[in-house]
Amino acid sequence: MSAIPLSWWIFVATALFMIGFYVALTRKNAIAILIGLELMLNATNINLVAFDRYITPARVEGQVFAVFVIAIAAAEAAVALAIFIAAYRRRGTVDVENLDSMKF
Amino acid sequence: MNTFMLLLPETILLVFAFALLALDLIWKPRSNTLAIIMLTGALVTLAATIFVWMQANNGVIQLAVISTDGAGAVPMLAMDRFAMFFKVYAALTVALVGLLATDYVREKIRYPGEFYALMLFAGLALMLVASSTNLVMIFLAFEFLSITSYLLTGFMRNDAFSIEAALKYFLYGAVASAVMLLGFSLIYGATGSLDLHGIATGIRSSDPSIIHVLAIPAIVLIIVGLGFKIALVPFHQWSPEAYQGAPTPVTAFLSVGPKASGFALMVRVLTVAFPAFARTANTDWVLILTGIAIITMTFGNVVAIWQKNIKRLFAYSSIAQAGYMLIGVIAIAPQFVGGVPPIEGWDQGLNGLLLFLFGYLFTNLGSFAIILAVENKTGSSSVEQFNGLVKRAPYLSIAFVIFLLSLIGIPPTAGFIGKLLVFGAAIKQQMYVLAAIGLFNSVISVYYYLGIARKMFFSPAEDTTPIPVSRSLNFVVTISMVLVLAIAIGAQPFLDWVSGSTQILATVF
Fold first, then answer.
1. What is the pLDDT of residues B245-286, one digit of tens each?
2. Partners of B64 in beta bridges
3. What is the pLDDT of residues B331-365, one digit of tens each?
4. Pick from B467, B442, B470: nearest CA to B456
5. Given A51, A79, A101, which is nearest B188 (Cβ)?
6. Which of B151, B220, B261, B456 has the fewest Cβ atoms within 10 Å of its own Cβ atom?
């Protein structure tokens, strides 16, 4: 465990975050954007847990933070899916390119 | 005073919100009954906040809510007067928005109990955001506020605009908070602390090379997240859509509540945790914020000129106003070079920001009460509906002119005092360019704000039937108008109040 340098963890987390961010920016389907978002949140969780282990091993603050992030991600997904279902019922699509009825 | 008493306002809000949900489930009361319960909750909270504020006058009180290690408790919430200012603000926001929502909710909202309960939860979130001092608590409170805002925006789920606005607000908001969370994780890695004071100490004591690699991106990422909530350009794309699509009372809430909380958090995070990076060669968040303020003011004002929908126009107007407010944050910064204790007069910009926000609360909620009255009658939020309003509703027209003057910043209105203090602080810090651009933007804004006034007084109306104004809307308009004028004419008590609210923040160094 401690044989792996901290920088590797940060590298993985950053790569994962960037993939998630790319997905969130490029996908048209709201569900796919939500998947990208979950990737971003999980990438920061890796960061938090790794920093907790290497920087402040005596305390568990980072791990506690990660648990809270997981809970928030679940709440966010629930609200997101509720909104997406309502949008699909009303508009027949969750494709963000087709949801542009408010241009002036 | 024990910790339970300090949390009295939050507890009261929570109890009333759950009581509303329970009552709605069991008895299905009428919309008006629910509104009365909600307003009682908001007013009791306001009274409790003022009570706690008077008790908490002497000294910083930190609440340690959870303890994550054996050594000691971790402070989570700060009950200082800075937080108390924003709690009073939150209670007022919830009370006034609840009051102006009553007619709209009765006519158009199918689940009034849940709507009012969510409104109270949003008020609770505003309070928690303003007093959080730990990154975990900041993230939780921030997400609490975001999620309640998404739900309120999409509350009319059978309305195509409302649900589309909620979807876009969610997608932008969730990405912004994930970006901010990455910033939090980096700053935790750089300093080994989640507490804002601990971060400031960690930055002073750690290896500069690590700090610079991790802290600089972290500050930028945190500004992105906060900038989204405040709707600063270039993170503003959600706001015109969300403002236009959301139910109008929710638009009124979004334009004042989350904006104030975002500023509270920005001031707290930047001045408590990152004073060391205010004006250094490597990182300069003053410079970043200055750039953002200039783009925000200019973009908001210029784009607002072409708007045909009044709610969308107010979205761009509130973007521009956020740019002026940001000058107040920038003008406090130079006193923090190297994290030294602040000198005399450091908080002028902050005083300006708080007074500006307080005046903006009444100006904007008053304006939205008028927009709601027109919308309830005509069913449309197009600017054209304001043609010849003076013949249909003379009182509303005169009140609206006062609110528009306040938004421009013409005396004797609250907007004038706010702008005077904010621009004055910028000039005192020798930021002449910033103050000049602010003034120039105020001149641009005259065009579209007075454009509405011109329509009300000089354009002929298609329909000349009078617009009925309910007692609740009338009350909101009157109280807002009185306060907008009172803040300007009898400014001294308000000035004393805001400068008292900034004192505590200084003692944390």
1. 999 999 999 999 999 999 999 998 988 888 777 666 566 788
2. B75
3. 876 555 444 555 566 778 888 999 999 999 999 99
4. B467
5. A51
6. B220
Q: Kindly state the tokens that stand for B117.
A: 């309960």
Q: Is B69's pLDDT higher than 50?
A: no
Q: Are B181 and B187 in contact (CB under 8 A)?
A: no
Q: Which residue has the higher pLDDT, A95 or B334?
A: A95
Mutual orientation of helices B248-268 and B348-378 as an angle, nearest 10°? 170
Overall domain count for chain A: 1
Judge whether B185 is closer than 8 Å to chain A, CB to CB: yes
- Nearest Cβ partner of A40 from B170, B178, B193? B178
The answer to whether the CB atoms of B192 and A64 lie below 8 A apart is no
Is residue A85 assigned to a domain? Answer: yes
Q: How many residues does chain B have?
A: 509
CA distances from B261 to B68, B108, B299 (A): 27, 28, 22
Q: What is the pLDDT of residues B38-55, one digit of tens each?
A: 999 999 999 999 888 877
**What sign has the CA pseudo-torsion B414, B473, B258, B242?**
negative
- CB atoms under 10 Å from CB of B241, counted, come to 25
Is A66 contained in some domain?
yes
Query: Do the chains contact at B308 and A104, CB–CB below 8 Å?
Result: yes
In terms of CA atoms, which chain B residue is nearest residue A46?
Answer: B185
| Residue A26 touches chain B, beta carbons under 8 Å | no
Q: Which domain holds residue A52?
A: 6-91
* Contact yes or no for A44 and B178 at CB 8 A: yes
CA distance B130 to B196: 14
Shortest CA gap B27–chain A (Å)? 26
Q: Which residues contact A94 (CB under 8 A, 6 or more apart)?
A: A29, A30, A31, A84, A87, A88, B167
CATH number of residue A29's parent domain: 1.10.287.3510
All residues of chain B having their beta carbon less than 8 Å from the beta carbon of residue A24 are 171, 175
ipTM of the complex: 0.95
**Assigned domain for A42 exists:** yes
Instruction: Collect all residues with Cβ–Cβ distance below 8 Å to B196 and sequence separation of at least 6.
Output: B133, B134, B135, B268, B269, B272, B273
